[in-house]
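task queued by scheduler; priority normal; single chain, no ligands, no partner chains; default sampling; output format set to structure tokens
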Amino acid sequence: MPLSSRPARPRRLSACLLAAVTFIAAPAFAADGVFDEMRFGVTTSIASGDKQEDGVFPSFTLYFDPFGASGAADLGEKLLRPRVYTGAAVATSSNGVNQAYAGLSWTFDMTQRLFVEFGAGGTVHDGDLDNPNGDGPQLGCRVLFREYAATGVRLDEHWNVSATVEHASHANLCDGPNNGLTRAGLALGYKF
């Protein structure tokens, strides 16, 4: 049975199980100093027409700092020392797309409290590839490029809130439609 015509329930269940396992395991790894930050967010589609997804997309993202980004002193060092992130977003509607993603992230302080952040990487999804009768965006291939931008404020030394916008598409590198996924939302972060 093609993935685009599968019932929504099994893929939602597997995405929820992945999110639950990640949520449970995160505190144990954080205690060992493995994680730099974790974020809980929610986004919604800002696309229109056939590219629109209904519902909201709760997400969980983990950030790692293997290159010492937090110790970068100037712009050159910040560019050469990104953080690494991985996460997942779960769809809450039948035409929504679940994603698992990973990539590199760069954070730039505007003031002591305000920051901007940019990230680039890839995502694997369970959305419709090329069914013209499907409900929601047609994405062309299973693996997509993913970029995001965020602006945020640090509430204290650990907690932050950010507004995000993200986009995923195949950049016309594979056959088929390329509607892409475009979402915006908010995230609450905890830096260890």
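post-processing summary
- Residues 1-10 have pLDDT under 50 and may be disordered.
- The helical segments are 8-31, 75-80.
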